[in-house]
Amino acid sequence: MVQQFKRIGVLTSGGDAPGMNAAVRAVVRQARDHDVEVMAIYEGYKGLIEGNVRLFDMRDVSNIINHGGTILYSARSPEFKTEEGMQKAIDTCKKHGIEGIVTIGGDGTFRGATDLSRRGIPCIGVPGTIDNDIASTDYTIGYDTAMNTAIQMVDRLRDTCESHFRCNVVEIMGRNSGYIALNVGLATGAAQIVVNELPFDEERMYDEILIGKKRGKRHYIIMVSEGMQGYAEKLTENIQLHTGVETRFTRLGHVVRGGSPTLRDRVIASRMGIAAVNLLLEGRSNMVICMHGEDIEALDIEYALTIDHMYKGKIKEGELERYSIDDIQSMRHYCAKKAADFKTLYNQALDISQ
User: Fold this and answer.
1) Mean pLDDT across 232-253
2) Among residues 45, 101, 193, 313, which is most buried (max CB within 10 A)?
3) Is the pTM of this model over 0.85?
4) Is the dihedral of CA 202, 208, 214, 218 positive or negative?
5) Which residues pair with 287 in a beta bridge?
């Protein structure tokens, strides 16, 4: 390993996620183990623009691995998207001797990291979002904790549904990604799961609820992804209208973002934080840490963002021109497999839902 830095920075940006603190802790400890100082950048890119930074030592990251949220806080920064804001951020780096940055967050965080890397500030991205909606990685920090929190809440809803012979339509976070809804729905035995990635047969759901009712079934959980944008409330009314089963609506909301991170989130966040520092010390830049299976790997951030755009059907005109035919085919194969795996799990969940 070639040490090329005296001081690096670390920031968290976008929505908070359990395990971010574990990643920050790993970054600081791994850097200090190689005699590299770490500047804590508070409130993400907003703090970088405003110079809200402080030198961290080992004591600053003691006893934080079990804490939810992020001790570095997070904030939106429209100014960072401007050239003037970008220059202020670079000026902060120069003023405080920050020679590289580990950025922890979602796709917006990675776009900011790319902008800084292009302007001479090497950045490594670490995926931190409960939504697991970064297509280039199988896993994002906070995802496991959010699912486990949601499971506990839905299990409690099931108890009261059973007691009162009710159906409960549960809307769960995830932005436009249905991963949390799908896995929590499967894990809690939901009668139906509604995600915007796949078509949903509402009439068939009514028939299955009525069949269950004749068999003596007393509770129904219908899991709906946040990405359906208001559909859950309408569905609540329709279920009661078509089946006669008393139906309530529950939005789990931001509570699934909080809480002490699970073992899996602590371990993966730590592994990713270590890998990010190692990449910087190797002289690498504009990379994102990804998890494929149980392997921690690194991809070029722009390549990773292109995969994400392809998977979500948001490829911009000319975006693929920088890649070879083989690269494009590889991306398409990866996205097709990811979508197929999602569909397979969805079908399996429905197969055992009644």
Assistant:
1) 96
2) 45
3) yes
4) negative
5) 124, 300
